[in-house]
Design goal:
The chain has 3 helices and no strands. By secondary structure, it is mainly alpha-helical. The chain has a domain of about 45 residues. InterPro entries: UPF0352 (IPR009857), YejL_sf (IPR023202). Pfam families: DUF1414.
Length: about 70
C-alpha cells in the first residue's frame, strides 16, 4: 500500500533538489552525504520529536527506507 503524504509532491521535490544541489556543489561523496543525512534525521528526532515517540518514529522511518530501496531492486 503506497504511503500518502500530507505534503504535496512539488514541495517535496523542491526540498530534495535543494539538498542534492548542496551535496553536488560541495562534491560530497556518497558516504559523506548519507552520514550527513543520517545526522540531520537524528537531529530532527532529538530536537523536534517528543522523547516518548522517537523510537517508534525512527523505526518507522527505517522500515520505510528499507521498503523504498527494496522496490528499486
Amino acid at each position: 500500500m503506497p504511503i500518502v503524504s500530507k505534503y504535496d509532491q512539488e514541495r517535496q521535490d523542491q526540498l530534495i533538489d535543494n539538498i542534492l544541489d548542496i551535496f553536488a556543489k560541495d562534491k560530497a561523496p556518497n558516504d559523506l552525504a548519507l552520514m550527513t543525512l543520517g545526522n540531520v534525521v537524528t537531529h530532527i528526532l532529538q530536537e523536534h520529536v517528543p522523547a516518548q515517540k522517537r523510537q517508534a518514529i525512527a523505526t518507522q522511518f527505517g522500515q520505510i527506507l528499507l521498503q523504498s530501496v527494496a522496490k528499486e531492486q
